[in-house]
């Protein structure tokens, strides 16, 4: 296996180097064929390494960056004001080929804007998207995109998301023909708004293994490998899920704390509850993919701890090894060639339906 | 208290009279000031009453309807083909003033179309919406609308949903100034798509107690009393929640069944789990309100059992008693008067922002 180098925005996230440096060290211990570049304020990173009784070396380099994009910085500051930010330098290392992928727990909007500005989009991709994995009832993962990068999507955008999502699943899960579903409010073709209806037509001829419409509950049923939606809908679905999961966990805890007998039952059930919590632990699938760029960039949750951030680094490494960029390129290439061939066939069909 | 009469589409839902008749009898036993009209095939309803050792009387009438709208019937069949369907006759009883409200577990799309056709919308309401309640972490309820009646909403529609949702909470929960939040993908004013941004401006001057933007997790946090969104987004949020809740319940069960020790722990924890399940039981809040019509119509879940369907009947009775229609009328009236006053002020502001 060839060596992989991952650049880490060491300053990003709620906890900065305190989390990112520890996660990098843990990762390196488990993966011997990956190098890491920690990007950020040298003294701060070195102090963190020292406190962990570690030091930089051939597999763990520090690359200096003098500025930090905060959660409150407006996009213009991230893009134009702080040209030597750890976030931006991370993206530049990818662009210059000094890293194969990047990971940042910084502000999502800023990370997308900076990554897009520095790396540019892949040919044939109009808009990058954010994809994440959610656990499903099959014991596997459902990939959902977009999650908020694009709030006003055209049918073409949605179709491209499907192509990119399929490439992601092939790269990371090694499934050759992953199924792609279009998030809608009913399974029938006639349902949904105009954009979604048109997107379904485009996905049918996109070359991906298009399943058809799916509904919100299909995300957790695991009906398809990839669920495509616009960023507004995807963001609401994700946040709603987070809110519900928290409420359920709280209610369960409350019931087990209600009185001495319940507490005793809770004590006895502790190992079961622990296993359950582990299975549901969102840290396990931390790391959203910024898809459609000429480089691999992973966005970690801002509040990630070292365990969660390590998962995001693992995801970056998997995408590199799975040849994600080449796969997206191939699929989009096939799509573009197909689009050049189909217009004459499609126009009369659509007119026929309207008549 | 004045007597309330509720018409029930006895034939609707997955189980038809087997559930609706039982629910009606249970409801009548608990509420002595409400009359019920069971609408549908007389022989079938009478057979069901007989099997439950009950009969019709002054408080429980049967109103015949010779046809049934099935789940697969296209809208045109429900609207024009089956003019004597139990669903349509239920709506007509409301229109003629023979019932104060209706309840049906039939096809949502058909029920909305038939109700709108028969009852018409209230003055000032362009589109009716579907509202439901979801439990929140405050131990209360969050009202969410729209849930699928409208997939392409204008800012005006969203603003009207806010007004109707507030009126619903006042009528049913007796809160005088319920808070209204606009579902978005960030709390800041600049977030979201154009329609949502405009809707926020309209809600600010609508007379409702507008909180501002909320996110998906706020539904379950209970940040506001009413969450407003377009039907596509609302439907996805609801279905996603259903899917996640099912997965969590399944995982919890699986962990408790994993081995003899876990099973024993589960046995000991049974009363706790039961209380938890009861609190999370979606049957408790069965019954979505079709808002914006000149009549009160409640849509029950199609798979509702007698307990769940009774909850839907209770909701109908509460809306009648709370004076829902008058409250919506008052709020919309205030909104319309306000709109007539504000345009001169608003136009220059909007132009200023664009320049």
UniProtKB/TrEMBL annotation, chains A, B:
Cell compartment(s), UniProt: Cytoplasm
A single cellular component GO annotation: cytoplasm
Entries under InterPro entries matching the protein: FA_synthesis, Phospholipid_synth_PlsX-like
GO biological process, one term: phospholipid biosynthetic process
Catalytic activity from the UniProt record: a fatty acyl-[ACP] + phosphate = an acyl phosphate + holo-[ACP]
Listed Pfam families: FA_synthesis
SUPFAM superfamilies (UniProt xref): Isocitrate/Isopropylmalate dehydrogenase-like
Keywords, ordered alphabetically: Acyltransferase, Cytoplasm, Lipid biosynthesis, Lipid metabolism, Phospholipid biosynthesis, Phospholipid metabolism, Transferase
MF annotations from Gene Ontology: phosphate:acyl-[acyl carrier protein] acyltransferase activity
Gene3D superfamilies cross-referenced by the UniProt entry: Isopropylmalate Dehydrogenase
This enzyme's EC code(s): 2.3.1.274
Region called Disordered, residue ranges: 335-355
Signal peptide feature range: none
Biological role: Catalyzes the reversible formation of acyl-phosphate (acyl-PO(4)) from acyl-[acyl-carrier-protein] (acyl-ACP). This enzyme utilizes acyl-ACP as fatty acyl donor, but not acyl-CoA.
Subunit (UniProt): Homodimer. Probably interacts with PlsY.
UniProt name for this protein: Phosphate acyltransferase
